[in-house]
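ingest -> validate -> predict -> emit
validate: passed (alphabet ok, no gaps, 102 aa)
predict: started
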Amino acid sequence: MPVFPKLSSPVTRLFLTWALMSGLTVISIISGDALETRGHTVPLGVLSVVILMGATLFKCRLLLLDFLELRGSSATWRRGFIFAIFLIAFMIVGAYVLATGF
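emit:
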């Protein structure tokens, strides 16, 4: 019996998706300065917000395709959901830029 199962098996795909999402969560924590302990708050820079949104977009894509099983659905459904997520992320970054006066 091989040590590693086929990469196309559902269990392996879900485990790899979980591992990627965990890694992206660590990137989000570091980018968002969530571990900051100085006691005062400083607005995040636009670059940090863009990194956070990029990690969030990738996590949403993984969640939609693998956990919600959109990978097997029609391309129209996949494109529609991914477009909606990109639109929401773009609006969040735009609102942040407008609020901070970049």
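The chain has one domain: 10-100.
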